[in-house]
Amino acid sequence: MKKIISTLLAVILIFQGYASFAQLNNAGFEGGIHKNEMDYRDEKKYKEVIFLTGEPILLEGTVELKIRDEKLEYEYELSNKDETVTLEREVELERIIDDESHETQISEVNNILDYDEEIVVNLGGQSNTYTLVDYQMHNSTIDDKQPVVTYYLGNWLGSKVYSINDNEGEVKVDISGNIYGYDHYWGATETQKIHKDISYSQQIDDDSVIEWYGYADIDVSFNRTKRMEYFKNLPYQTSFAGGYTLTEQNETIMKYKYNLPYVEDNEVKEGIYNIGEGTERFETLPTQKKLYIPKLQDIKGHWAENDIERLAALQVVDGTNRYFGPDLYMKRVDFAKWIVHAMDLLEEDTHSRRSFIKDEVYPDIFSDVTKDNPNYQYIKAIKDNGIMNGVGDNKFLPEGNLTRAQAITIVIRALGLERLAPNPSFDTRFKDDDRIPLWAKKAVYVADQVGIANGTPEGYIYPNEYMTKAEASAFINRFITYLQRDMKEDYREKIINFDVK
Length: 501
Prior knowledge:
40% strand, 14-stranded antiparallel β-sheet, single chain
């Protein structure tokens, strides 16, 4: 649905021509999930659970989304398996976007413009038609773009009123929802927590009215993840032992719990409740891309062999040469290039769906890096994204050796996580804490907390020692793994308390 606030992080729809930001999920604000086949079709398979009748009813069908600069339009066609329950819904939302008040943030507000919804239920020998007669909904979300990750947060309140059989009764559903999400090159996750309060009143005959209250909690999460998998080459007479495959897969999960009354023969049974839960999901077939097969001759048996091969397969490091030099010191310019390649920072908004487009310019960036420098584009990208700012008097020192403290600071700055550190003064847990430069203290603390840099088994971080190319390879691989796995766990499993394999 809306760029930031889609009801769940669907997985990557690119909408061409959408200048400031794009949306990640397109299922709407109804608490359902859709299957994003990554084929760019507007119409997607869709599931939703409704609770209007006092029983949870799983509906399946399609949702179609149309995005306009100032408007979002949704069209749903759903039914249960035996088609005794059908739902037709059209919703139109206005979009109010503020992308000018802050350089790295965008806010969006969505309000209802128009709606049309009818649910027909033929169950237990009875037929009821629920017609939506009033729908109020206000949503607001905020994007915060950091150098390699865009984080976002949203919330909304809604109220839907249905007429039963042309004013025989009424069902009111009050809805509150929160959205937590991020998006980067290696993946994206959006999780929504939705609460629905349902109040039901229907005139059964001249003397009796059935009234009840119930509620439901719905947790929905959309995820896109890129993974690397190694495949061994089985034949003996071959030029290479095996190779990596890069896969990308989208999945959506809906977990719901409900506490509803127990209704029998149009009578609410006091003290008896209909309590339960359920789970639904969609998965797409992973896309696959075979990666470059490096043939470096000086890494076999090295402790960082796998890390180096992974980065070489991704062409983050140059695997075309015969020698890598794993124990040589890491140069600042090479680390900049590796970060740019690993995060695809030379590409303009083709991977991070929640990123901002910048006009391409070619200014002088550092006194020791001119436009003629063969690595100019990488150094410019790393500076433009606020990841490496140089040292001293506007110098980058491209051939300078990289220290551990510098590497850690660069990665934490790229993630935008400095705020996780306490205010000075504080000590890290490392035995050589007193040797950590003041400018790197927060980054080292955060890197330890999130598991990107844990130091040695003896408890040292050695902040001022130069990092070797092998160590840098392992460090960037850990950075990528954090983006692929650890962030998803924080934004999905820890929020919805659901063990997803």
